[in-house]
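User: Could you write out the 3D structure of this protein bound to zinc ion? I've included everything you need below.
Assistant: Certainly. Input first, then the structure.
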Amino acid sequence: MAWFRKEKKPLRSAERRDVPTDVFVKCEGCGEAIYREKLTHNLEVCPDCGFHFRIDAEAYVELLIDDGNFNELDMHLRAADPLRFTDLKAYIDRIGISEAKGQGEAVITGTGVIDGMQVALAVMDFRFIAGSMGSVVGEKISRCGRVALERRIPLVIVNASGGARMQEGIYSLMQMAKTSAVLADLHEAGIPYVSILTDPTTGGVTASYAMLGDVHLAEPGALIGFAGPRVIEETIKQELPDGFQRSEFLLRHGMVDRVVDRRELKAELAIVLRHMGNAWENHS
Amino acid sequence: MTASPHLEFERDIAEIEERIKNLLSVADGKGIDVTSELDVLRDKLDSLREETYRSLRAIEQVQVARHPRRPYALDYVERCFTDWIEMHGDRSYRDDEAMVGGWARLGGDSVMLIGHQKGRDMKENLRRNFGMPHPEGYRKALRLMRQAEKFGRPVVTLIDTPGAYPGIGAEERGQAEAIAMNLREMARLRTPLVSVVIGEGGSGGALALGVTDRILMLEHSIYSVISPEGCAAILWRSAEHREEAAEALRLTSENLVELGIADEIIQEPQGGAHQDWDGAALTLKETLLRHLTELSGLGTNELLRRRQAKYEGMGAWRENSAAHITGEVSAGT
Ligand SMILES: [Zn+2]
């Protein structure tokens, strides 16, 4: 518990650890060289073009939660290998490699305070087997939802996922049903749920909890969709239009409420939560 | 029914069928009695079919599940149900013919019947998009499920799809949202829900009709998070490894019962449902009636309590020293 009580420090970029010594980073958006330190202080958003670099799960916790007061839940849940799945590599080894890097699973869950309001927060981690949804992700999201339900506090999920975890077969598919069922209870109980969509959110996660929010906030330029662009291209045998399945495309087509710059994310989220019920503020 | 195109592993079966046909036409032409020869051949055919279909490999099960002569949703509707009134449209965009639904009578009672619908030939498949719905198909299904709830009737779904359609329009109109909404609403729909995988249970596009009190599978149907081809392309980096992928995914009806997901396997006629549509339909009808009777005896609160508990327990994970696996009693590790 409370592993996150520590000094404020700069956000960590998911890309950063690959080139820790670089003083400059080339922007994937505009191609400009950005001073590493400047990028860090700008929440990993390009100061010139606004391109959003991916950041990891801990960085989102730090970005959203007041003073790092985050009580992590269910951190001991670990993947099992119910199918004894082996492709080019055994699933159990893939898990082992990711766990050895210090990542427990593809989601962090817990409770904390956002601008004075108690919330249950789940943040997915794309580093862990592409943020894929296996049984642990489903179980942690479900438990986090039930905490929100029992304590009557809002649920916030920051999404980032490549989709279902194939190595868990049908169990992986069933996590979509399991998590959606908990959200049905939250919906019925009148408890706010805000889904934040980051790059990328695709497949089974999009087709379950990511698209069931009362409010959908998307970071600029994030890839968000049901099918991956490559699968679509192969199916329809034609090139996809520019900007297809990006946040702005989803906004235009009515699938997200707002495209929000990461530097405004916490402030906007707080306003939204307050609108949906300031009764939440008095709970602790 | 026209003659079935044969799958590769059915080659020996096809050969005997051909010999029976030849024998019959020769006998017909010359007026010879071939009864005893025919009996021998038919016995041989029966035992060969039985033997072949008893020990299908996973990839062969996939082929049977996709067999072009396999009965589809409307073929079962015709044989199991009466007073069928098909209803159309999602009341918002259009009617998606990859999804069919409407009122039907099973035994004496009305049910809402919803299913994926594949086409029998190229022309029909263009209309039905090979059984791959767009968002409006899922929204039509949800509209009909809510109607069933309103009038206190059970819902029966017949699952048979390669998956929800991956296309530009589907993404624009919110394929993911449509599927997600079905999952959420089915989880708490206040009426009995029974799903039957009759052919291909392809991923989220199948699950969007599959959050149900009972999950039944026809013997040679499959249910999987991804197609073996898709899985092989990603994890083995080549679709040619589909046989290994089919095996690894554990997608047969037998696997799904072992994994604690499917409740029951509905036996198919010898040689598969495509050999005997009426026989397959009869067993399906009897099984459906039995499950619906059981569920209607539960009362809505108990029904929902059980459905909630079932989906809460879905999955396999380790926690401290204990392991939770659906369908198994928790065991220490
Ligand atoms: Zn830039």
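Residues A 27, 29-30, 32, 46, 48-49, 51 surround zinc ion (CB under 6 Å).
User: Perfect, thank you.
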